[in-house]
Amino acid sequence: MCNMASTRRGLCRPRRCTPNLPQQGRRRRIEELSRSSREKLLQSRDKMFSKFTSILQHAVEALAPSLPLQEDFVYHWKAITHYYIETSDDKAPVTDTNIPSHLEQMLVILVQEENEREFGETGPCMEYLLHHKILETLYTLGKADCPPGMKQQVLVFYTKLLGKIRQPLLPHINVHRPVQKLIRLCGEVLATPTENEEIQFLCIVCAKLKQDPYLVNFFLENKFKSLASQGGPNAISEDVLKGQDSLSTDTGQSCQPEEPSGASGTEHTDLEDEPSRQMGDLSASLENLSVTELPEASVVRPNQDYNLVNSLLNLTRSPDGRIAVKACEGLMLLVSLPEPAAAKCLTQSTCLCELLTDRLASLYKALPQSVDPLDIETVEAVNWGLDSYSHKEDASAFPGKRALISFLSWFDYCDQLIKEAQKTAAVALAKAVHERFFIGVMEPQLMQTSEMGILTSTALLHRIVRQVTSDILLQEMVFFILGEQREPETLAEISRHPLRHRLIEHCDHISDEISIMTLRMFEHLLQKPNEHILYNLVLRNLEERNYTEYKPVCPEDKDVVENGLIAGAVDLEEDPLFTDISPDNTLSNQEWLSSSPPATPDHPKTDGKTEVHKIVNSFLCLVPDEAKSSYHVEGTGYDTYLRDAHRQFRDYCAICLRWEWPGSPKALERCNLEAAFFEGHFLKVLFDRMGRILDQPYDVNLQVTSVLSRLSLFPHPHIHEYLLDPYVNLASGCRSLFSVIVRVVGDLMVRIQRIQDFTPKLLLVRKRLLGLEPEGPVIDHITLLEGVIVLEEFCKELAAIAFVKYHAASTP
Fold it and tell me: Is the CB of residue 202 less than 8 Å from the CB of residue 311?
C-alpha cells in the first residue's frame, strides 16, 4: 500500500504541474484583454468628455451674454494656445480637440468685424491678428502637424481668411511672410491627405495675385541668387536654404522684398520691439511635446526656394486628376500676370520652362513605336482640362491611346499657357519648347532613316501642327520646321536648313505613306496664320518675278492687248494641242459678259491683264475630250468647285489681311530679271510630283493637287501670276504650274493611243471611285486612268479658283 501510495503520489505530481502552463497563459491573455479594454474605455470616455465639453462650451457661448468682438476673438485664440501649454497628449488628432471650432469662430468674428466697418478700415480683431503674428504661429503648428491634422486646419484657415476678407491682407508683412512659408509646405509630398486643401490655398493666393499683380513680388522674388553669386555654390548654408521657421528667430528680412511704405511697415517696427510672453510659452510647450516636423521631399528649386510656381508644378504631377488640373489653372493665372518683373522671375528664376518641356519630352518618349499613324491622325480632339480616359469604356481603343492622349493633352496645355501668358513669359516659354522639345526630342526622330520611325514622327508633327493655336508657339514651330531664312533659294543651298530639306524631300519619298503624311503636314501648315510659312516656302523665290521674260508693249500691239491678249502670248485655244475641243466644255464671251462683274473705273476689264474667261477656258480645255469623263456623270461639273473656292478664298483673305500684301505685281522695271530663277525646293518637288501624275497612286495625286490648290488660293499677285496665269511670258528654262500640266497632257495624248477602249474604262473607273459601280475585275492601266481623272478635276478646281479670285479683285 505504501509503495502503491508513493507510486500514486509520484504519478500525480506531474498531473498537478502539467495543467499549470496553459492556465497561466490563459490568465495572461485575460489580463491583457482587460487592460486593452480599460484603455479603450478610457479613450472612449475621453472622447465623449471632449465632445461633451465642446457641446457644453457652445451652449455656454450661446446662453452667455455676447462679449465685444475683440474679447471674443482673444478668448478663442487663447483657448487654442492654452491647449498646447496644458496638454500632455500630442498624439490625439486635432478633430478630437476644440481647435477647429475655435479657428472657425475666429474667422466668423473677423468677417463680422469687417462687415460692420467701412471698406478698408482695419478693426481691432484684425489688428490683434497682425500684431500678435497669429498667422506665424499657425504656420509653425501646421508645419509641425501638431496635433495630427493641424496642417489641414491651418490651410483651411488661411484659405478662408484670404477668400472671405475683402480688404487687401497680403501687403502686410505678417501676412505675406507666413503665407509665403506655408506655400513651401504645399506639394512637397504627393498624394497626402492635405493635397486638396493645399491646392485650394494655392489657388486663392493666385486669385489674389491676379487681382493685385504687384503683390507677386512677395512670392516670386529671386531670393538666394545674389548670395550664391557672391559666395559660390557652397556659400549658402543648409539652415539658410531651409529657412529659420521658429517664431522666436525668423524675421524674414533677408528674404523679403522691400516693404511698401505705409502703416504696415510702421506697425511691423513697433511689433518687433514687443516681447511676446505667450508665444514664448507656446514655443516652450512645443519643445516639451517633442514635436517632429514632417520630412521634406527632395524637390529641385533652382535659384529660388519657397515659391508658388514650384509648389504648383509639383502638384501638377498629382495622381488625382482634379488636383493636377487645379494646379495647371493656378500656373495659367501666374503666367498671365502683366507685371514684367513677374514674367522675368517666372522664366529665369524658376524651373517652369524646364519642367513644362521636360514633361512634354518624357510623354513624347513614352509613346510606343508601334502606334498606328492613322490613329494619331484620327484620335479625337484633346483638351488639357479634360484628360480623362478609360480604356474599358472606349469602344475605339488602340494600343498606346492612353499615352497619346496624355502627350496631346500636355501639349495643348503648353499651347494654351503660352497663349495666355504675358508676352515676355510667352516668348521665353515658346523658345524653351523649341530648344528643349522640338530640337532636342522631335528633330532626331524626324531625321532618322527608319521608314516606320519617319512615318510615326511625321504623323505626330502633323498632329501638333493642326493643334497649335498660340501665335508665339506657332512662330517657334515654323522656325523649327522651315528655318528663319527669307532670301531667295538657290539649288546649291537648298539643304541649308537640314530639317526643312529632309521634310520637303519626304514629299517625294519612295514610301507613298511617308509622302502623303508629309504633304498633309505641309497642307495644314499653309493654313496657319503665319506669314513666314508662305514666304519661306514660295514667295521669296517669286519676289523679283524673274520667272517672266520682259517684253515692252509696242504701239502696234495695243489692239492685241485690248482684245484680251498680252503681246507675244500664244492663244492656247489655237494651239494644235487643243484643236479638238467640245463647245460644251468652254464658256463663250457672251456667257462671261453675263456672269462676270461689270467693269468699273477702278477695275477696267482691259487693264493689261489677261481676261479671266481666257484663263478659265485654258484650264478647262487642257484635258482633251477623249480623256474627260465628268460630263458622263451628273454633279461633277466645273461649277461644283465654285462654292468651295469662294469659301476657301474668303478664309485665306481673312488670314492674309494683316500681312499687307500688294494688290498688284511688282513693276518689271524694278525687278531683277537678270538673276537666275529657281522656283524653290518646295515647288520643285510639287512640280516634279505633278509631272508624274499619270504614274503615281491615286491617294498621292489627290494630296499633291490639294497642296497646289491651297497655294493657288493665296491672294498674292505673284502667286496668282505664277500658278494661275497660263499666258505669263516665262523666261527661258522656267516652268510654271500651267506649263507642267501642258507637258503631262502631251504625254497623255500619246499614251491614250496605246490603250484599247480607253474612254469606257475611264468612265468605269470614275464610277467606281464615286461608289456608283461595285468593285469588279482589275482594270488594265488603272494607275494612269485614275491619274487622268485627278488631272481633269484639278484643272476644273484651278479654273474655279481663278474665276473666284478675279471676281474678288474686280469687286470694288
Answer: yes
